[in-house]
Amino acid sequence: MDAKILIESFAEFARSKNVDRPTMIRILEDVFRAMIRKKFESDENFDVTINADKGDLEIFRIREIVDDNSEDIWDFDKISLTDARKIEPDFEIGEEVYEKIELEEFGRRAVQMARQTLIQRIKDLEKDILYNKYEEQVGEIVSAEVYQILGREILLMDGEGNELILPKGEQIPKDRFRKGDTVKAIVHRVDMMNGNPKIILSRTSPVFLERLFENEVPEVYDGLITIVKIVREPGERAKVAVESYDDRIDPVGACVGMKGSRIHAVVRELQNENIDVINFTDNLELYVTRALSPAKVSSITVNQETKRISVFLKPDQVSLAIGKGGFNIKLASKLVDYEIDVFRELNEYEEEDVDLVEFGDEIEGWIIEELKKTGLDTAKSVLTLSKEDLLRRTELEEETIDEIFRILRQEFEQ
């Protein structure tokens, strides 16, 4: 393989990858200078000129002419007068000899090694380009096509044939993809594994939801509405706190759109994830009230030291505050950065009830906490439910629930 073929093949690749000309020339020069050092020990007195467009290569060895008896005659950048005149008969001592070195003079083995080095540099450059491209896109939405579905991940291909990975843990539980499907996700991170870039995508990240809002709501994209915080239970429920610095703009209304037109597009992409858009406020009690929507809160007590909030609701609002699977109260707690405890509010006409804490001697503390997590904080709030309801709402065993019913009923029988 001659220099022309080497240079032209590399230049063609470089152009296809949008490599700038200076980088392309620098890599080529590095490869040829490595050849020179291998043969002549140093490349300091060599001039390498490359014309990538034409595939031309010129290598000149530059040496100063010295007397045949000079002590410097063995220096790598010196040449004897006798040897110089073999190149050009009218050379004189002190002049510089520019001797052209043809690629063939390095030998077939050296040229083959240069080819391998160039191929490796091409591969390394391609990896660097891919890494840098996606490193700059972290947190941005990309679309890619599914080409292989594995047990723990889905492999996708972008428009340039690069492999992207969507791990099982970064997929929405309801996601079902087939080969050839186009998938939207954000670039979650870019890792280097054994020198190879590994591009990880995500559909469960709150950032993915934020980018979808930017795509669907111009006011968010333009910065007129700010997304303060997003918390998600992917595929189930999400809460988005928004605010606007312009009093003329209703941030919640703008995000939802006319008849829900804007948010419906986001919901469809997230496999019908239930999205609550909440108007952010610095008033903590009001913020908590909004975060627990659609439940209507009666009263709130805040404990700043323990970072806990006690919320009191009417009996028919407790299940709404907790939500299906406990997602509503869990996400509300994350949104306001406080642990929220839900309590059932008794009115003056209700019979006297007993707080579950009063049964601490008979019922273990962790069981009481498990019941409280589902909004059951009094004896009667537990007794109004069936065994099947408690099994579904808690992680308690059937025998444990039977014992709880026995203890609580005994209290009222007495």
From TrEMBL:
Indicate the quaternary assembly.
Monomer. Binds directly to the core enzyme of the DNA-dependent RNA polymerase and to nascent RNA.
Q: Which UniProt keywords apply?
A: Cytoplasm, RNA-binding, Transcription, Transcription antitermination, Transcription regulation, Transcription termination
Task: Tell me what this protein is called.
Answer: Transcription termination/antitermination protein NusA
Please report which protein family the annotation says this sequence is part of: Belongs to the NusA family.
**What SMART domains does the record point to?**
S1
What is the organism of origin for this protein? Algoriphagus iocasae
Where is the S1 motif domain positioned along the sequence?
139-204
Protein's UniProt keywords contain Transcription: yes
- Quote any Pfam family the record assigns: NusA_N
Q: What is the lineage of its organism?
A: Bacteria, Pseudomonadati, Bacteroidota, Cytophagia, Cytophagales
Molecular function (Gene Ontology), one example: nucleotide binding
Query: InterPro entries, per this entry?
Result: DNA_repair_Rad51/TF_NusA_a-hlx, KH_dom-like_a/b, KH_NusA_2nd, KH_sf_prok-type, NA-bd_OB-fold, NusA_N_sf, S1_domain, TF_NusA
Biological process, per Gene Ontology: DNA-templated transcription termination; transcription antitermination
Q: Where in the cell is it found?
A: Cytoplasm
